[in-house]
Structure prediction request, 686 residues.
Amino acid sequence: LKEEEILKTLNHLNQLTKPPGSLGRLEDLAKQLSGITEELIPDLSKKAVVVMAGDHGVCEEGVSAFPQEVTPQMVYNFLDGGAAINVLARQAGAEVFCVDIGVKEPLQHPNLISKKVKPGTNNMAKQAAMSKDEAIQAILVGVQVVEDLVEKGYSVIATGEMGIGNTTASAAILSALTEIDIEHAVGRGTGINDEQWKHKQRVIEQALQMNQPDRKDALDVLTKVGGLEIAGMVGVILGAAKFRVPVIIDGFISSSAALIAYNLCSTSVQYMIPSHLSQEQGHQFMLQEMGLTPMLYLDMRLGEGTGAALCFQLVDAALNIMSEMATFQSAGVSGANEEMTNS
Amino acid sequence: LKEEEILKTLNHLNQLTKPPGSLGRLEDLAKQLSGITEELIPDLSKKAVVVMAGDHGVCEEGVSAFPQEVTPQMVYNFLDGGAAINVLARQAGAEVFCVDIGVKEPLQHPNLISKKVKPGTNNMAKQAAMSKDEAIQAILVGVQVVEDLVEKGYSVIATGEMGIGNTTASAAILSALTEIDIEHAVGRGTGINDEQWKHKQRVIEQALQMNQPDRKDALDVLTKVGGLEIAGMVGVILGAAKFRVPVIIDGFISSSAALIAYNLCSTSVQYMIPSHLSQEQGHQFMLQEMGLTPMLYLDMRLGEGTGAALCFQLVDAALNIMSEMATFQSAGVSGANEEMTNS
Prediction:
């Protein structure tokens, strides 16, 4: 990021009528945004949520409480504006773009971005989820979607996804890329009971044993135990870094994509804005791995980009602080006694 | 709160196209809001931030990095719309109401709510901060402000404050009301260094020794080591409970008022919505004491109501979810396999 812009931003923040640093993470955000965009106060009013949808062959193993048909049903719900992400995006003044990158069923809708790489992944408990070529193709879909959005003037992007079974893939990615054991990596997804949770752990263990993904090769991990929508989000994140656009990372599944992106290209993390901490227990380890700290603690576990969408207002707040607050000088407010402070 | 409304809300939430409970704290908020207002989806569009301003005699002891003249200067900044709380309230569609409940200097401004009980508290290191009558009078100012706002149609209120020296009073309240030792109760306020922080602890210790506030009597604690703006916020919170209006509690100083209100009337906590966790280290203990968990973790330590203002959007989100989301039935989405879930 541009150090010079960051220093200019810090200098401006320290002139505003508040103790230096007292707006905490909002000030960090303001600095990050200007470092990314090379503007003191960028215009980030055109906001997009990209929802990548894909199915998971591992659903055959009975890892989710919801049937696989819910993936296409929810895609139509997104396109009709009735899902949680639509509500929260609308509130934030953001548009939802839904991409079919790997839904099993054929889908048709005028507003759907149809980029199906493959009709669902293979069952990773029995073989690799996809081929390396398919993984790369799905990443490139994500990069392309960002390029198209940037051309249309969108300036901040939130990641979202839909895919029954995708907490299983995300937990497998977390286990494969880090030292976290399976018991801590795996959560209850949409809400399975104890017995099903144990079963889900065994399925993931089997998938890892079968595929032997290479911890040092994030593309290999993505290929063998990932998902098409996860690969698409990897592309969205790398695309955001490429086009210097801030990208808000949603919860557990989005963060598994972020972790892949980070392992492929560590500087991509500088373009990421963490949003909420998911109730899915593995999420904290993903964020820790990348040195990211969430801002919203809402015990959410819905995905779709819902936590990220709530974060748009924090981005707006950081920018509004920069553009609207009075300075000590303009408001005639006295500063701190320097001898009493650390700064 | 009305159990019947809460159950109706839960029933509606469980029909929406998402796994039951997956929106976490937003669902809790929706339930709380309907329990408070006795409406399934209350209209909380008229939002108010009440900023109570007062001075602290204990500033004589040199506890703050900022001079006392900053209190009136910031009041004018609020009234002119240039402070952080103005920016964040504007973004949330909320109005800021600034109350002079105890600023030392005379203040005049057409938009100021002038309710001065006393021109600043006494130096609590030497005597009681105020008399019991003054404390009660200041509480009643807060109740009256809420009554006036409710009459004007405001339906959700955030607490805010301004008063150089008021983290000292708040830390004293925390120490006086709980078992927390002074070292953990006292923070760095607007940003004092190590030496000044130790000094601040000694001043608070002296104030507690001098005044011997009765732990079992929150009004006694407020009177002896509190502040006029803190008493005013106690009134705002009790008034919110009285008029069945949700009240969003800001950070450390607002929470010291909440803790007094809770000790005076424990059911008032049901009307409180916690917002952010302040960087001020004592804040977490106050919230724990009331069984409240913050939703925003932004390392903020500015006060004014800034953390509470950011929480308005979460209130909006909870209500928008209730009113705008499709149901499983309306969207034709399949439900969970009940045998696999806990619910």
